Amino acid sequence: MSEPDTRRPFAVTSRYGGERKVVGERMIQLFFGGNAFVAVLILGLIMIFLAREGLGFFQLNRANLEVYRKAGLEFVEPLRLQENQHNQLVRRMFDLRVESARALGRNTELDREAINARLRPLDDFILAFEDAAEPLIHASMNLSDLAAEIKMAAIEWEETEEYRGGLKPDFDYETARESLVAFLGTQERLNEMVAANLRRVVNQGNQLEWANTALARAFAELRNEALAFATDLPGAYHEMSTWDPNEPVPTWKAWSVFLTGSQWLTASFWQDWYGVLPLLTGSLLVSFIALAFAVPLGIGAAVYVNQIATRREQNLIKPAIEFIAAIPSVVLGFFGIIVLGELLRQFSEIGWMSWWPGFPVAERLNALTAGIMLALVAVPTIFTLAEDALQNVPKTYREASLALGATRMQTVWKVILPAAMSGIVSAVLLGFGRVVGETMIVLLCAGNRIAIPDFTRGLEVFTQPVHTMTGIIAQQMGEVVEGGIHYRALFMVGLLLFVLTLTINYLAQRAVRRLRLPTI
Amino acid sequence: MDPTTTESPSPTTPAAASADAGRPAIIEVEDLDFYYGENRALDGVSLAIPSHQVTALIGPSGCGKSTLLRCFNRMNDLIEGAERTRGTVRIRGVDIFGPEVNVMELRKRVGMVFQKTNPFPNSIYENITFGLQLQGVRSKTRLDEAVERSLRAAALWDEVKDRLHESGLSLSGGQQQRLCIARAIAVEPEIILMDEPCSALDPVATARVEELIHKLKQEFTIVIVTHNMQQAARCSDRTAFLYLGKLIEYADTQTIFINPSDSQTEAYVSGRFG
Questions:
Q1: B19-32 tens-digit pLDDT
Q2: How would you list the strands of the sheet with B82-91, edge to edge?
Q3: What integer pLDDT is reported at residue A18 of this predicted model?
Q4: Which residues pair with B86 in a beta bridge?
């Protein structure tokens, strides 16, 4: 009754029937899976690589700080600070002289000769003020040279074959420092003398005549500061006499000098400092400026394209914005130097723009120039992702809102944007990640001055030149000794940057997850 | 309307018996042609919809019943290429396609409930107050009152009164649709358009919404598009049958279902095509 089953059997036991097919499928699966895991693998490898090259920095930095202490550079530092303070006072006095000359030129008929004659007493005063501190400056320079010599000698000593082979003892810092420390014996007397001289000169200053009350007031303030400086002079002695060259440098110091140090100073005659703060603030400042331009532009364009534009406008705007992402950043950087930097400078010099803080700009290349160019990099990212987020808002929300009598703009503000907010936040964060990692543009346009921007000057901070984490790596990596402290410091900057962008990306993903719309 | 009746559901009765064709028409459609680009969706439709009645628009897919419904609050304006080429729609005597018509104001008078439940991803409270806040109502007491009144009218108050500030999306499908109805009621429209409001709901939820429709007609004029013949028979007073963009027959629901004058209508309502 039952017919023989002539169809292909499904229970295949032969080697070439079933299993080969299974093996084939396995291979395909492995291929796809392998591709997918390459990303994870590479991420891990990059982290290991950065950490391996970078973390060695802290050991080297600790040794660096130890030499700084033992060779007596740290000992001389208070003196150098005083020299520096005195220099600044002198510089400000010269500024006052320039102001005075200007004021005289404006208010009187005097010619240059006559003005100089009028200002001779001030010139004499400044000269006397400079001379009064001469012994202090002399001592500071002498001791600096001595300390630097000790440091050089110590480094040379430790680089010799014998020392490395264990044939030579450790460098004898104690003896080398003797001449340095001997200074303490004369310092008290020197301080007294300099302080007395300064006081005398400053007190004579009250006979000076000033062109107007503002200048007089500025000078009075300066005199008070000069007197305070004279009074504080013995402070350095106290600091230097209690200094202990053998106090060990704690490990955390090597970290804190890097993370919170305000100086990035390399290949210097005195002491190299690897403080990441100027670079970090520079990066953040430039990114902030970029986002300030890119967020309204990107989101505005996304709303327009998604909610308002006709199809023809969409077909024009979308590819145009996405094309910006295809421009090589070096081209944008070049454009920033040649065109935008120049335009910005000329624009800032227009008379009626001078109310804007920081205008006219002192430097053609500054944080603002770089920020504006970086905004161009961030706009496509923010636009594309924000537009996606808006696109993902169910169309039914829009209908519901309009059917309740909302205008198109009310619908955008009260329904569409809130519903897309998670996606938009994540778009902004990813845009931030994009600009903080951008290198070429900031290297070319940011002005590359390694200093923490002066935030006390309010909005002027935006027109100051800055340097960035990415810029410093690109700029200095080519000229460092492999494995040296500078090389490793650059890797630490890279690691920090990596951690920063990783955090931003993580936050962006969390924003999406936390605020994700329910699927309807 | 008496909110206490929500607890005692009365059996839904065929409403046609109480239909009063002599009521004044609130919507008058005259000779309306409507195109989507090249495609004609409505072809010379004329009908008058009486106030405080439930009017059902039925017909097979693509017959133009949704298009006609969306003409009443001009939701078709949103579709690119959609265009009225001839005819008028008057609501309370005013041509709603006229140049002086403010579409936003029109939509406040003519509310709408959609096929797909679409509460905003906000709280129940915010869903209901959305329309009033658009109109600039800020007073907390007025908003609170409106929320309670609308939810009671939509027979949802007892189920959600303790969780007004939870997301509207946490409700079940049927509750979400009643929330959408409450949201439409909150702005106090005269007319409520319903575009297949029960097609995504299970039978129990459907029954509740139908019951609600029946109750709402005391306060509002309701126009409902439905695929479900029984639904039209159960809850409407008047029924219009459309086919290929033309109005084939328009009469009391009872007439349409028991004694249609057109053979196409008869074939459709008896389930022989569509």
A1: 345 678 899 999 99
A2: B39-50, B25-36, B82-91, B94-95
A3: 57
A4: B33
Whether residue B229 lies inside any domain: the answer is yes
Confidence band, pLDDT 50/70/90 cuts, at residue A510: confident
Residue A220 Cα distances to A95, A126, A196, A248, B59, angstroms? 14, 14, 19, 45, 95
Q: Which 8-state DSSP code applies to residue A11? A: -
Percent of chain B with pLDDT over 70: 92
Of the pLDDT bands very low, low, confident and very high (cuts 50, 70, 90), residue B192 is very high
Residues of A with CB under 8 A from a CB of B: 311, 394, 396-407, 410, 414-415, 418-419, 517-518, 520
Contact A399 B134 (CB under 8 A): no
Question: Residue B193's domain spans which residues?
Answer: 14-269
| B135:A405 CB<8 A | yes
Contact B118 A405 (CB under 8 A): no
**Domain match, A192 and A232 both:** yes
For residue B24, say if its preceding peptide bond is cis, omega within 30 degrees of 0: no
Does the pLDDT at position A519 exceed 80? Answer: no
Residue in chain A lying closest to B71 (CA)? A403
Instruction: Answer for the pair A150, A69: CB distance below 8 angstroms, yes or no.
Output: no
Q: Do B134 and A410 touch (CB under 8 A)?
A: yes
Rounded to 10 degrees, the C-alpha dihedral B23/B24/B25/B26 comes to -110
Query: The domain that contains A430 carries what CATH number?
Result: 1.10.3720.10
Strand partners, B25: B50
How high is the ipTM of this complex?
Answer: 0.86
User: In terms of residue numbers, what domain contains A131?
Assistant: 73-244
Q: What is the sign of the dihedral through the CA atoms of A116, A117, A120 and A121?
A: negative
pLDDT at residue A53 above 90?
no
**Tokens matching residue B10:** 């009365």
Domain count, chain B: 1
**Looking at residue B32, which CATH number applies to its domain?**
3.40.50.300
- Which residues does B208 contact at the CB level (< 8 Å), separation at least 6? B9, B155, B174, B178
How many Cα neighbours within 13 Å face the side chain of B220? 28
**Mean of the pLDDT values across residues B96-106?**
90
- Report the residue from B104, B116, B120 with minimal CB separation from A405: B104
* Chain A residues within 8 A of B190 when measuring between CB atoms: none
Q: What is the mean pLDDT of residues B141-151?
A: 92
Identify the helix (H) or strand (E) that includes residue B69.
helix B65-71
Which of B130, B137, B150 to substitute to test the interface with A, most A CBs within 10 Å?
B130
For residue A271, is it within any domain?
no
Number of helices (H) and strands (E), helices first, in chain A?
21, 2
Contact B131 A405 (CB under 8 A): yes
CB contact under 8 A, A400 and B183: yes
Is A156 within the bounds of a domain? yes
- With b for 16 or more beta-carbon neighbours within 10 A and e for fewer, the A379-411 pattern comes to bbbbbbbbbbbbeebbebbbbbbbbbbbeeebb
User: How many whole angstroms separate alpha carbon B28 and alpha carbon B22?
Assistant: 14
Three-state secondary-structure class, residue A432: helix
Chain A residues touching residue B73 (CB < 8 angstroms) = 403
pLDDT at A128: 87
Q: Which two tokens stand for residue A37?
A: 């895991």
pLDDT higher than threshold 60 for residue A248: yes
What is the predicted pLDDT for the residue at A359?
78
